[in-house]
Structures are given as C-alpha cells and as structure tokens.
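Good morning C.,

I know you're traveling, so I'll keep this short. The sequence:
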Amino acid sequence: MAKIGTRSTTDLLIHIGIIISLIAVLFLAFFFLWLPFTTNHGKTITVPDLSRMTTAELADFLDDHDLRFEVSDCTYVAGAEPLTVQSQYPKPGIKVKEGRKIYISITTPNPPMISMPKLVDQTYVSANYALTSNGLRLGKLKYVPDLAQGTVLKQIYNGQEILPGTPIAKGSMIDLIVGDGLGNTTFAVPNVVGMPLDEAKIYLKGANLQVGTILPVEDPEKEVGTVVRQNPAAKPGATIRVGDIVDLWIVGPVENDDSQ
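The tokens, ready to paste straight into the viewer:
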C-alpha cells in the first residue's frame, strides 16, 4: 500500500491541497460534463401548436419533433371537428427537453346527454346564462304579447316544447318565447281629458296602461295641470291593448316626475 510521506508541515499542506484539487475537479466534471451529457442539458425544443390537429397526425408529427403525447381529457365542442386537439399542456412556444410528453385534450364525435334545465318563468338574461352554463345554445328568440315583460314563457326544441329534465344532447339549440310586456286583452280607450294630471295617471295605471310623454300646452281657459288632449284619443269604437302607452297634453309647464 502506497504511503504519502510527510516529513514536514509544508509537505502535509501540499498533499492536502492536491487532494482538495482532485475532489474539486471530480465535482466540476460531474456537474458540468457527465450530468449534462446524461440529461441532454441545454438541448431544448420549442413546443409546437397542436390545435386542430387530428389524433392520426399527432404521433408522426411529434415523433419528428422528438416529443410524445398523452390524451388527458376528451370533451365535446359544438361545431368542432371530432378527434382534434382542443387544448394542450405545455402551451405552444414553451421550451422543453427532448422526449417531453405533451398532454392534450381532444374533441369527441358524439355529444353527451344532459338534462334540460327549467327556463320558463326566468328572465331572458337568466335563461341565456342557464343555457350557456349547461352547454346548450340559444336559438330563435320570439316575443309575444304578455304582461310578463322579458320573462321566458316557453322553451322550444326542434319546434316542440321541451320539459325540464328531458334528456337532450349537449350543444343543442333551444328557442325561447318571451313576453313583450303587453297583453292580448283589448278594451275601449279610457277618456282622461278634463282630468287633473295626477288623477289621470292613477286612472290609466288602474287600467293597466302606461303614461307616456307629457307635453305642455297653453290654454288660458283651462286650469293649470288639466289634461286637454290624449293619444290615442277616446273616440267611439277605439280600442287599446293592456300595457299600451297613452301620451298626455296638459295646461302649463311640465314638472319632472320620476313616478311616471
């Protein structure tokens, strides 16, 4: 067995220095030569954009780029071509090492069945949100005379009313019938000419009519605030529909009234 002679303190320090130097060389060689070589350190690939590629194209394409893929999720997307890439991770443009696995989500050819939500009696805004959140689409929007303004009266699928809870394919289009705020009931136009404005407003609202524009006129023979004209006029045979608007002309200036 070889022995290191240390005849003096100087020899000992020299030998210790040699040992430390050898350890440092081995340490640097491990981290900067051997480790990078075995892990392909510094060799990176830019992740390509795989969107809308078919699964049949992916294997050869990624193999040419020294990458692999794995399907992590399948989802139905209305209008999208089946079996194509919908999303990927890592995202396009990211630098990765050779052989990295790309996780993809692909579109399925058949939509899943879901339960039709209840849209009737909801506002149009709420119904539209419910359609979107359930993976359904808004089709035709039809307004019909009804006092429930902006409220869904019927939900239609393929021309037929569809009940809540009915199985339906995700992505289906639903038509909505919505009230326009006006009723179908008609009656004779009430006559408010000659009434004070406040009394005329109460009378019209009691008849389920809306007070429209109030315009000022000059008439020295009438008391200020008196209704002297209305549109539509209360002529014999004239009718009006529930929820319709009646414009009024009054004597004197018009005051702003938020309660109209």
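Safe travels,
E.
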